[in-house]
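Q: what sequence does this backbone want?
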């Protein structure tokens, strides 16, 4: 028990020592705390400063690459997950295929914003066209069409 307590204190001190000193590129301690609380099973987390003063953390969770974005004060702004059709929730996949039944799902961006419903931006393709559709709370909207050669 004492060894576990010492390890916890040591990790906290290391995080605090590296917490957002002026001119430093390390993330704000509040961003780290939020990240650890929300993404308990995340792996391979890599932090990077953004030009606007915020931070992005790229990580893997359940076999999916995700990016959590925080502002300069460590407040969580959004998380974007990118994946293929097998990770898309079945109800969203069925909804997309009910309209675009001759299309293959190429890629999905799942966008989570605090206080808002999850948005899925789905790229589908047939032999001539790539279409980008957005699905939010059961509502689907085509937002882009690209002709392929």
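A:
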């Amino acid at each position: 028990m004492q060894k576990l307590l010492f390890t916890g204190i040591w990790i906290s001190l290391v995080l605090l020592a590296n917490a957002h000193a002026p001119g430093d590129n390390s993330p704000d301690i509040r961003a780290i705390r939020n990240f650890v609380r929300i993404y308990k099973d995340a792996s391979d987390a890599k932090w990077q400063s953004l030009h606007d003063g915020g931070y992005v953390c790229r990580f893997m969770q359940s076999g999916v690459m995700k990016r959590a974005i925080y502002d300069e004060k460590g407040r969580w702004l959004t998380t974007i997950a990118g994946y293929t059709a097998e990770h898309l929730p079945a109800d969203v996949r069925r909804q997309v295929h009910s309209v675009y039944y001759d299309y293959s799902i190429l890629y999905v961006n799942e966008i989570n914003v605090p206080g808002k419903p999850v948005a899925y931006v789905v790229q589908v393709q047939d032999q001539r066209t790539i279409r980008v559709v957005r699905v939010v709370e059961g509502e689907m909207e085509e937002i882009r069409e690209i002709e392929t050669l």
